[in-house]
Specification:
- With 204 residues, this protein is mainly alpha-helical.
- The protein is built from eleven helices and no strands.
Length: 204
């Protein structure tokens, strides 16, 4: 491996350690303990190293959320389902979204609670929801081609984004303890917004 390659590998490993330490703090400690210094201690690096990687506490949180999405392949949902019919793609996307919310429930729940009182947290989560909405717009257009939705596209996208959000998922209580069960319910709600369900994968 070249010197440049070794340096890049070291930098990647350092960033991985920082993100893992940040995730651990988010999952196990109160928000006030989620600090650059706390993450540095957990990762075994200096505060300057963490700062050079993420710049701020906000950047640190954004890096953790981006890593969650990347590792779960949530940014590949449209690509992974493009070979399916619109209805099948909808069911698959909703199911994978539910599995993602379920697997990260203990980490995301306090963050969404904090959004009510912390502007930075609210802003970062809102950006993530806007990104999800942009992704879901493509799905809504595919579904609309199979039926005639009763609402404007923007309204349908807003509804589908809300129905498939973490807040909605978590509000299902015991149903959310079984992500497959939750997916059937939420897929039905999505299809009620986008038109009659014509394929398997959910209630009709």
């Amino acid at each position: 491996m070249t010197t440049t390659g070794r340096r890049a590998a070291t930098t990647a490993a350092t960033r991985r350690g920082i993100i893992d330490a940040a995730r651990e703090l988010l999952a196990t400690q109160d928000w006030q303990h989620f600090t650059i210094e706390g993450v540095a201690n957990g990762a075994g690096v200096t505060r300057v190293t963490v700062y050079n990687q993420v710049r701020s506490k906000r950047g640190l949180l954004d890096a953790v959320l981006a890593d969650l999405v990347d590792r779960a392949g949530m940014d590949q949902l449209l690509t992974d389902t493009q070979h399916l019919s619109a209805g099948e793609a909808c069911a698959a996307i909703v199911r994978r979204t539910c599995l993602f919310w379920h697997s990260e429930r203990e980490l995301l729940r306090p963050l969404f609670g904090l959004a009510a009182v912390d502007h930075d947290v609210a802003s970062i989560l809102q950006q993530r929801e806007e990104w999800r909405g942009n992704q879901l717009q493509s799905l809504v257009r595919r579904l609309a081609a199979e039926s005639a939705p009763s609402f404007d596209e923007a309204d349908v996208v807003a509804g589908v984004t809300a129905v498939t959000s973490f807040v909605t998922y978590d509000a299902l209580g015991p149903v959310a303890d079984d992500p497959d069960r939750a997916a059937v319910l939420l897929n039905h709600l999505v299809r009620s917004l986008t038109g009659p369900a014509r394929t398997a994968g959910g209630l009709a």
